[in-house]
Each structure stands twice: as structure tokens, then as C-alpha cells.
Specification:
Length: 328
Amino acid sequence: MTTRTVLVLGANGRLGAAATAAFAEAGWRVLAQARRTPTNLPLGAEPLLAPLDDPEGLAKAAAGAAVVVHAVNPLYTDWEDQLLPLARSGLDVAARLGALFMLPGNVYAFGEGMPAILSEDTPEQPTCGKGRLRAALEAEIRARAEAGRFRAVIVRAGDFYGSGEGSWLDLSIIKSLKRGRLVYPGPLDVPHAWAYLPDLARTFVAVAETSLGRDGPAFETLHFEGHTLTGAQLLDLIESAACELGLAPAKGWRRGGMPWEFIRLAGLFAPMLRAVAEMSFLWRIPHALDGARLSARIGPLPMTPPAEAIRQALIDLGFAPRNPMAAE
């Protein structure tokens, strides 16, 4: 059987690195594209330093790739200037290769009026700038795919966590874990959608493998269910995992919330805080992703139990077990 090739754009990012590892583990040849040489590439993966803003050159360097995973995500403050141009470069590469284009989606475009359960048929009604940008991006992908240039699939998921730094988990919630303090961005009784990155990456592999060599729509969106947890459930899991790793605070755990009013005020002077405050509705509005269509497509979804996923996420962030036996 000929080894299939996937081009992962943005392989140094968390999703890019997780996708590189998952496709390589599944036996694919992985071309890991990045601005800087990716480190610790798994067997079966090779670096590709061709720039994303040269789609023609990148496509030539990635000749034979059957799948393009667009894992490039600019900083929140750069979305308006960079989100669509970067995605268009990725789309141009996929068109030149005649490859399946895969994009990780999110729930931003559903807006503040979104229902508690989000299916692929839920209408997008964005209420913020980033939601409107994501809706515009998805519309452009659909238009290009339905014009016959390539096939495309968006795998929509909740907030990422796991596989290292850069998520709400480490940047906010457990930022003060060693001092016994946890900070949750919203009400503790509101369900919130999460996606453990190793599971999501394995789902990308399964979707790619069931898409190639079969007839299917030019464009489709599939929802990755992930873990839906209230704030209280998430903090309970974090506390339990930390205790298992020998990190229980001597004076017990303390829980706090995000000072959103201060963040909005500070956002008048700090663009990043302004960009973060724009998304605060995601923590107030209960939401979960319906994964039935995806499950019917690929079979049982890759799903690490939440307690195990949280524990591994802490270890990946450097919270190694104080008792070496605890890791066994």
C-alpha cells in the first residue's frame, strides 16, 4: 500500500504538532511546514520550511500530498489583518495540490444567541468581530470547494487544551496552581465545550482516511463533541489530578473568577486584553457540540476520559509527579 502524504501547515503550533504526531503514528508521511524547523518530529515526519505566502513554491515542495491540514492561527490581535490572508494561502496550496483541505473550526460564529446544543445545521449568527471573520472564512472555503477546486472539511471543536502551552487552561485557569489558586473565566454552573488536542488530532486522521478514495460532498462541517464540562466539574478534575501528582496545596484550594470589567477597561489601552474581552460571552453562554454526525462518519470518536486528559495536560505543562511512582 502506498504511504499517503499529509501537509501540516503551522506544524510548530499546538494543533499542528498534535496533528503531525497523530498522522505519523497512523503511518502517514507528514510534511511539517513551519517558519522555523520543527523540533522533536516523530518518525515519518519531515520538516518543510517553504513559506506559506508562496503557495506555488510550497505546493511544489509538497508535491504528492493528498491532505492539507491548516493549523495556522495568528495571535488574537492579528486576526483582522492575518486570518483570511493566511487561510487563503493554505487554500491556494490545497487547490494546486488537488488535496483535501482540513480546517479546525470553533464556535465563535454562533454568537451570543447560540443554543445549548450545537449541530452542523445550527445557523451562524456572529455577534463579535472574530465570529464574523470565522463565518467569512468558512463561507469562502465553501465557495472555493463547491467551485470544484478541491474538497474541504471543517472539524469544529470547543476550546483546545493539552499538548503544551497556549490555552485557557495554562494562561488563566491554572496559572497560579502552585499557589493553590484556580481562576475560572465564567459562572461555575455553565457547561463549556472543550477539545483535548490529542483526541482532536486523531479525529483529523480518521476524517482524512474516510474522505480519501470515496465520493462525498465538496464541502462539509463535522462537529467534534470533546468534553463538555461545567466550571465546577473542570476545577474538580484539576484539583484531583493535581493531588494525584503530589501538588495539593497545604492550605487547601482557592477558587476565583476573571475580573472582566477590569479587563474590558484595560482593553482600552491593551489590544490583547480587548481581544480577549470580546470573547467573554463563551463563558457565560452554555454550549456543547453534537458529535453524532462525525461519529456516524468515522465510528467511535477518539475520546480520552476527562480525568485522564486533564492529568496528562498538567504533566505536559511541566507539572511532573513529585512521587515518580504516581506516573506509573
